[in-house]
Amino acid sequence: MGRPAPRALLLAAAAFALLLAAPRAGAPRPSARLRVIANFACRVRVDSTLSRPPCHRQAQDGLAMPLPALALSTAQLCQATHDCQPCVRVRLALHTAGLESIHGLELHFLVLGSNRGSWLQVLRRRQETAGSLWQVQLDCFPVESGHRVLVSLGTIPDRGLSLNRSHLVRAEQAGPTFNYVWLPEARAIEVEVPAGAHMVRLCHQLVLECEELPSRFHQQVLVSGSRRVVLPYEFLLPCLCIEASYLQRDSLRTKRCPFQDQPAAYGTELWASMQFRDYSSSRDSQMAMVLSARCPLHPTATLCWKESDAGASPCHSFPNSTAMESDRAYRVEKVDVHPLLCFEFSYGNSSHVECPHRQDTAWNVSVSIRFLQLLLHITSTVPASFSAALCQQQGSQCEPASPVYTVTCPESFAPQELTLLLPVQILGDCVLVWRSDVPFARKQLLCPDVARRRFGLLALGLALALGLLVTVLLRSRRSLRKLATAPRGRRPVLLVYSPDSEEHKTLVCALADVLRSALGCDVRLDLWETGSVGRLGVLPWLYAQRELVGRERGTVLLIWSRGSAQLYQLWLAAAAGSSGSPDPRDLFGAAMSCLQGELQGAGRPGDWALAYFSDLCSRRDVPPALGLLPCYRLPRDLPGLAGVLQGSAQPPGWLRPSILLHRLLKSEKRKGLQSRVELCRLLQPKEALRGRACGRCSPAPGAVRGVIGTEGPGAVARLPWRS
After folding, report:
1. Does domain 179-266 have CATH number 2.60.40?
2. What are the tens digits of pLDDT across the range 108-149?
3. What pLDDT, on a 0 to 100 scale, did the predictor assign at position 656?
């Protein structure tokens, strides 16, 4: 490998010196997009005078020159929005076996006459194991016609290799002349040759070449002087060009691209000429599309969601959802893939919406109605978290209201079924449901009067119930006046129950709603406060509510059932097998540990009460250890329970018949649930709370924050039981 000649060394030194200086004022700054092709994985660095080109890996043919080789040739660099300009194509090849641990190659350019200098580095990626033969092609460095360019090659780091070449870009000669007329109605271009004989055709101008049209539109026609030919085209595109050449091979050519500044070329036909291949994956929560275009355009893409699958339906954009683009492949991570969650491609003042080419969804939801409740049934094939919130629809808008209820589906090989309970506040409530563990998800709107057509029956039932309530109130005017003049208590009431059946939980929710709406009690129920439970954890939430009840002179109301008796026996068996109380792993177990500690400490806690529904339980099912607690049979003893909860000796007179509550609870018991599905699934906590949590149920040091955590945008409601 010889050393460079003294003249070449002077040229290289001059090039390096000029690189340190600023570009000469008035020198043209290249705006066309460059391209680098190498036979190894690479990345490119450039100076401020060049636009950074992409680096493609591709096998190349060897140069017919002894290695190391540095070859320069003239080419045309074109873009759809710019005129073509001459450029220098660089091809190089060298063996790296004798060069120790080089990381890349460096090219220096110097344009004589304009004194414009630039540099470009082709670096091997670290994970790439390149062979000993390195081949690189640069398409291509812009140079003005009639100028000479000096190119110098070195290695990174410098291992003593230096190659220098110069190339003259000759001034372009005039090509054949022609005239043309655009015929938009016929979707064709009429070409006329004034004199002589020329070959004419339509083509699509790429970066370096003008590619012929598809076979059914491709024509290369011989046109004689004063003759005309009509050339049809498929799509009106900004890169559609007319090319004319002489009859001899490799003759000069004249090319005109008349639609680069034509607004019609950037409309619907531009997007119709493109092909979109969908590679989205619900399992990976990724949306991906590959775009194949006739013109070398690079549109931007963002996510948007459509209200319906109708063609004219608007697509609402997601903020900060710009897709990453690499080799015309557009990707967005953490997406709830859905047929109505789409890409919106934009270029200039034109845009196009492309949706996933599939109709299946990773999850589905349906809604059913129970007394003062909406039951959401969610079926999911992917592990995810789902949130729901009530809203009042106003036109096409329905903003979610607090609280937000969340449930999580664990990873499984089979579809999972989840159920979420939401209390209905007023007639006409709709519910928004969305996947909340990803930032880009479409909210699905469900309105039960449309989905189930049962709001009419519900309204009728509520109207009858309200009429009955008004009758009872009118018959008890004196008691009602006393109730209105007496101070209305807002003492907190913490409801604790065992999750042994869906029927029991439904009755608990119905009782909680009566206590809140009819008596004005400040009811604390975990099913109604999933947001707070999700932020704190189920056990810390219970301890905080227990402290609030003690501080505000409220009541902890333990709702008992036959299932509660069975769970209590299991809890006792666990307590007998350990020192003291067992580790509490759910709300019921933690409440039993807390109650046992208070019974052992005070003998009879004054702010605990026990109640049971007469159709689900009897007094014999209450353990003797809980006999010290005041016990109420519902609905018969509701007046006495109401007096205790409100802190008054005399219960409201209008509650003594208990007709309304009795009928409501009976109705709920008869209806039941049509299917016994899981309320939600839960992974066990990593460690349990230690100790018996006596006094006011303070958690032991080092305790886990509970089994309800936060994942994603909303609280993840994970209740530690199955129905």
Report:
1. yes
2. 999 988 888 999 999 988 766 666 788 899 888 888 888 899
3. 46
Please state, in angstroms and rounded to a whole number, the distance separating the CA atoms of residues 309 and 599: 62
Q: What is the pTM of this model?
A: 0.50
The domain limits of the chain are: 6-168, 179-266, 268-354, 363-456, 488-709
Say how far apart CA 313 and CA 146 lie, in whole Å.
56
Question: Which helix or strand (DSSP H or E) is residue 317 part of?
Answer: strand 315-322
Domains 179-266 and 488-709 belong to one CATH topology: no
Cα–Cα distance between 75 and 77 in angstroms, integer?
7
Q: What is the Cα–Cα distance from 276 to 299, expressed in whole angstroms?
A: 13
Q: What is the pLDDT of residues 500-539, one digit of tens each?
A: 777 777 788 878 878 887 777 888 888 777 767 767 777 8
Query: Helix, strand, or coil here: 542?
Result: helix
What is the CATH number that goes with domain 268-354?
A: 2.60.40
CATH 3.30.830.10 fits 488-709, yes or no: no
C-beta of residue 406 within 8 angstroms of C-beta of residue 717: yes
The string of pLDDT tens digits covering residues 2-31 is 444 444 444 444 444 444 443 433 344 444
pLDDT, the chain, mean? 75
Beta partners for residue 610, in sequence order: 558, 631
Q: Which residues does 361 contact at the CB level (< 8 Å), separation at least 6?
A: 282, 337, 338, 339
CATH architecture observed for domain 363-456: Sandwich (2.60)
pLDDT per residue as tens digits for the range 367-389: 887 666 778 888 888 888 888 88
Going by CATH, does the domain composed of 6-168 fall within 2.60.120?
no
Instruction: Name all contacts of 121-125 with Cβ < 8 Å and 24+ positions apart.
Output: 121/44, 121/45, 121/46, 121/156, 122/36, 122/38, 122/42, 122/44, 122/55, 123/42, 123/43, 123/44, 123/45, 123/156, 124/40, 124/41, 124/42, 125/41, 125/42, 125/43
